[in-house]
Amino acid sequence: MATKPGPLTTVGTTVVPLVALVVLALTWGRDLPGPVVVLVTLCLAGAVLSAVHHAEVVAHRVGEPFGSLVLAVAVTVIEVALIVTLMADGGAKSSSLARDTVFAAVMITCNGIVGLALLVGALRNRVAAFNTEGTVAALATVATLATLSLVLPTFTTSAPGPEFSTAQLAFAAVVSFALYLLFVAMQTVRHREYFLPVTRDGEVLDQEDHAHPPTNRETFLSLALLFAALVAVVGNAKGVSPTIESGVDAAGLPQAFVGVVIAMLVLLPEALAAYRSARRDRVQISLNLAHGSAIASIGLTIPAIAIASIWLNGPLTLGLGATHMVLLALTVVVSVLTVVPGRATLMQGGVHLVLFASFVFLAISP
Question: Which residues form the Sodium/calcium exchanger membrane region domain (predicted)?
Answer without folding.
Answer: 37-188, 222-364
